[in-house]
TrEMBL record:
Belongs to the sulfatase family. Keywords: Calcium, Hydrolase, Metal-binding, Signal. The keyword Calcium applies. Its cofactor is Ca(2+). InterPro entries: Alkaline_phosphatase_core_sf (IPR017850), Sulfatase (IPR050738), Sulfatase_N (IPR000917). Residues 31-365 form the Sulfatase N-terminal domain. Signal peptide: none annotated. It comes from the Bacteria. One of its GO terms (molecular function) is arylsulfatase activity. SUPFAM superfamilies: Alkaline phosphatase-like. This is Arylsulfatase.
Length: 490
């Protein structure tokens, strides 16, 4: 009897241990995911990327975060805000989705509802999904985030420079007026709304975006994001929190409590505020007891701000956003997942923003859509150090709908040449090849001595063009409902 009891006790202990391990495995399979996307933060702004005090303000919280995970030196984005955000949400190059440029007024803008966003994929896996800040992927009510997989959203549909519209009044000391006849007319072009929305409900207009509200956005985005995470932890539900921060997009204006804090002007004050807000999010995760269960990604959507007087820094790289120069394509990227991603690692391997979609989806147990081209690759094995190299060797770089350059390993071939956003793109008689290790400023053409590289660059281009024949890109401005051609073939 004693022997049977002992065997029974061992059985139940083994079963309990198995269930415990299974529970831990399930928890590990569905981490919380926090994606902090900052706006137009250049490569040379943060302390760990050579900025910080050199830019007027230290960034201790983000620098510490970098030491707790993996910091990439070769994270690449698209050339403009809308394309980068589209690539993040869908895992598809923006040229495929009709979102390859910042939209102008007068036509349908944003992602068609046919696209599958990361929020939709994670929702199907039981995640609560929330977003706060700039969307920039559709300003019509049918294309707002709560119609694209998010349970809740607070923010603006387009972008922050529209805060300047209401500032066209010299008497208020806000922005140089040009006269009523030439200036902004609120009756013809109403100020942009700041929305609060929940899935399945009509969005509410809380207020309008002006310069005063512009200064308050960062604090409100952070407060609402932390409230969302707190509610989900209490409910025992995994969450995807997408904090689409407003800084450092122009007009680069700090919150009231940060104005004058550094003594080095608005830009440095904003850098200090951005670092503080990131710290608040990280502190909340720790306070809620989910720090070890949360995959945290901090990244920028573009190269540095290029509009005077809010210019940013690309560090060692050349060029501005709206180009395919390294100053446009390379952006900060930090990923932390305690006990899953080794701390203190730094890599110059190529990763593209489309990879975030696939990596987050797989981390959350979601299936990747198979009925369309997905350009993103799963980088988790690389992030976790299970492989030294990235799962990607290169990518095509578009500026709007123009194929402008192709990167492969440390090589880059320019098809068009454009250094700054307001320069006229110049077609080159033959591609200009640069070695980014030897020539980070992209000043010397080494193509004649390294023609062997052309085969690798052409393969990336040819593969893309073949996929266009089978899956034609969605034209920009396509209205709803959109359905792809039936069984398209070359």
């Amino acid at each position: 009897m004693h022997g049977r009891s002992l065997r029974g006790a061992v059985f139940w202990m083994a079963l309990a241990l198995a269930l415990l391990l299974r529970g831990e495995a399930l928890a590990a399979a569905k981490p919380n995911i926090v994606f902090m996307l900052v706006d137009n933060l250049g490569y040379g702004e943060l302390g760990v990327y050579g900025g910080g005090v050199l830019r007027g303000a230290p960034t201790p919280r983000i620098d510490t975060l970098a030491g707790q995970g993996l910091r990439l030196l070769n994270f690449n984005v698209e050339a403009q805000c809308t394309p980068s955000r589209s690539a993040l949400m869908t895992g598809r190059l923006a040229i495929r989705s009709g979102t390859y440029a910042v939209p102008l007024g007068g036509q349908p803008d944003g992602l068609t509802l046919w696209e599958e966003t990361i929020a939709e994929l994670l929702s199907r896996q039981g995640y609560a999904t929330g977003m706060w800040g700039k969307w920039h992927l559709g300003s019509g009510l049918d294309r707002l985030p709560t119609n694209q997989g998010f349970d809740e959203w607070f923010g603006i549909p387009r972008t922050y420079d529209e805060a300047l519209w209401t500032g066209q009044n010299e008497s208020k000391g806000l922005w140089p007026a040009v006269g009523d006849a030439q200036g902004w007319n609120p009756k013809a072009d109403p100020p942009q709304p700041i929305y609060e929305a929940r899935k399945g409900e009509q969005p509410k207009v809380l207020r309008t975006l002006d310069l005063e509200q512009r200064r308050l956005m960062e604090g409100e985005i952070t407060r609402r994001g932390i409230d969302f995470m707190t509610r989900q932890v209490k409910a025992g539900r995994p969450f995807f929190a997408y904090l689409s921060f407003s800084l450092m997009h122009f007009p680069t204006l700090p919150g009231p409590e940060f104005a004058g804090k550094t003594g080095n002007g608005d830009w440095a004050d904003c850098l200090a505020e951005m670092d503080h807000r990131v710290g608040q999010v990280l502190d909340a995760l720790k306070r809620l007891g989910v720090e070890d269960d949360t995959l945290v990604i901090f990244a920028s959507d573009n190269g540095p701000e290029a509009i005077h007087p809010w210019e940013g820094s690309a560090g060692p790289w050349r060029g501005t956003y709206f180009t395919a120069m390294e100053g446009s394509l390379r952006a900060p990227f930090i990923v932390r997942w305690p006990k899953k991603i080794p701390a203190g690692r730094v890599s110059n391997e190529i990763v593209h923003i489309v990879d975030c979609f696939t990596t987050m989806a797989r981390a959350g147990g979601a299936e990747i859509p198979k009925d369309r081209p997905i350009d993103g690759v799963d980088q988790m094995a690389f992030f976790q150090g299970r492989q030294e190299r990235s799962s990607r060797e290169g990518f095509p770089a578009f500026v709007a709908n123009r194929l402008t350059a192709v990167k492969w390993r440390n090589w880059k071939g320019h098809v068009l040449w454009q250094e700054k956003m307001f320069d006229t793109p110049q077609a080159l008689p033959i591609p200009k090849l640069v070695n980014l290790l030897a020539d980070p400023r992209e000043e010397r053409d080494v193509g004649p001595h390294n023609s062997w590289v052309a085969e690798h660059l052409m393969k990336i281009t040819d593969d893309l063009l073949k996929s266009f024949k089978e899956y034609p890109p969605i034209p920009m401005g396509t209205p709803e409902p959109y359905q792809p051609p039936v069984n398209p073939r070359p």
